[in-house]
Write a structure and sequence with these properties.
With about 325 residues, the protein is α/β, with parallel strands linked by helices. It has 10 helices and 15 strands. The model has no long low-confidence stretch (mean pLDDT about 95). It binds NADP nicotinamide-adenine-dinucleotide phosphate (NAP). NADP nicotinamide-adenine-dinucleotide phosphate binds next to helix 1, helix 3 and helix 4.
């Protein structure tokens, strides 16, 4: 085996074209880590933010983009007992997924769900870790509650609709076209609001308000989300596609006992991520293996075409997940 691997680097902060093929040394797993031979790598919006220079990777992470992948274990570091060479896994990564090989903590790997290919499995970790920890752990969604997710046709949105529906919540989604709304309904949303034509605040208020909102849009959605929440409702913020700064009347938070919270996955501790992996294996992997939920696949690009994949994602016409074949 050569000591070098093909990878995609961010040559400088900028648009999709700054993603360039390169050669890098194959990394060596340290204690508690595994080396994965990547078959497919998932493409996520945070990769585009990192490429644009708006999302610095943690100091200990690979500077290469890529937060999730599926493939086979190529080597294990000291103290790894759960995995052995040749095991098929999908994994949450600290970075570096756009490459032939990548390192990650062994505890952030999950088995490829029975009956699923590596292509689909590569699209699970980033959105399933994010949705589980924000909607169920942080947001405390319960069966029967009204749940609103914005960006319903995104990687995050398609995951959130399916999981919340499978676990018994009433799901409402927003999306920017009739085609995207139709997909949200197929995935289990009770109502999908085309935000270019209707006001999600009115739709939710007519139902008694949302008990939980998962939002990645921010901007003027913040005050509108507060209006759309039911008494004791919770808002979980996971992104700010329209910006984080806004004027907000906090009296409503006090008077209706609302909770506003949020999180990002990447800077959390290895232990926190390992706990999310354990919960997914117990609660969500059976749903995937029973075929009750599945990642929604948009398109596949070759590793060398990562720039085209990013341009496609930022064009905004995609529905579900984009994947790189390595
Ligand atoms: N906090 C975390 O840990 C975490 C982890 C992963 C992802 N995220 C965030 O979650 C969001 C979704 O990620 P993803 O990978 O699922 O992305 P994605 O598939 O590219 O989805 C972005 C979605 O947002 C909608 N949208 C609404 N307003 C938008 C705007 N002003 N600009 C661009 N898109 C807009 C788009 O659909 P419409 O056509 O319907 O507008 C699109 O479906 C991103 O903000 C990402 O940074 C957060």
């Amino acid at each position: 085996m050569s000591d070098l691997m093909r990878a995609i680097e961010i040559s400088e902060p900028g648009g999709p074209d700054v993603l360039r093929p390169c050669e890098q040394p194959i990394p060596t797993p340290g204690a508690g880590e595994v080396l994965i031979k990547v078959a497919y790598a998932g493409v996520n919006r945070p990769d585009a933010l990192q490429r644009a220079g708006l999302y610095r990777p943690p100091a200990s992470a690979s500077p290469l983009p890529g937060l999730e992948a599926a493939g086979t274990i190529a080597a294990v570091g000291p103290n790894v007992t759960d995995w052995k060479e040749g095991d098929a896994v999908c994994a949450l990564l600290p970075g570096g997924g756009y490459a032939e090989y990548v390192l990650t903590p062994a505890a952030h790997c999950l088995p490829v769900p029975e009956g699923m290919g590596l292509r689909e499995a590569a699209c699970l970790p980033e959105t399933f870790f994010t949705v589980w920890s924000n909607v169920f752990d942080r947001g405390g969604l319960q069966a029967g509650e009204r749940f609103l997710v914005h960006g319903g046709s995104s990687g995050i949105g398609t995951t959130a609709i399916q999981l919340a529906n499978a676990l018994g919540a009433r799901v409402f989604a927003t999306a920017g076209s009739a085609e995207k709304c139709a997909v949200c309904l197929q995935l289990g949303a009770e109502q999908a609001v085309n935000y270019r034509e209707a006001d999600f605040v009115e739709v939710l208020k007519a139902e008694g308000g949302a008990n939980l909102i998962l939002d990645m849009v921010g901007g003027d959605y913040l005050p509108r989300n507060v209006k759309a929440l039911a008494t004791e409702g919770r808002l979980v913020q996971i992104g700010f596609l329209q910006g984080p700064k806004v004027e907000l009347n906090f009296a409503q938070v006090m008077l209706r006992r609302l909770t506003i919270t949020g999180s990002t996955l990447r800077p959390q501790s290895d232990l926190a991520k390992a706990k999310i992996a354990e919960a997914l294996l117990e609660k969500v992997w059976p749903l995937l293996e029973a075929g009750r939920i599945a990642p929604v696949m948009d398109s596949e690009f070759g590793l060398e075409d990562a720039a085209k994949a990013h341009a496609h994602m930022e064009g905004g016409a995609h529905i579900g997940k984009i994947v790189l074949k390595v």
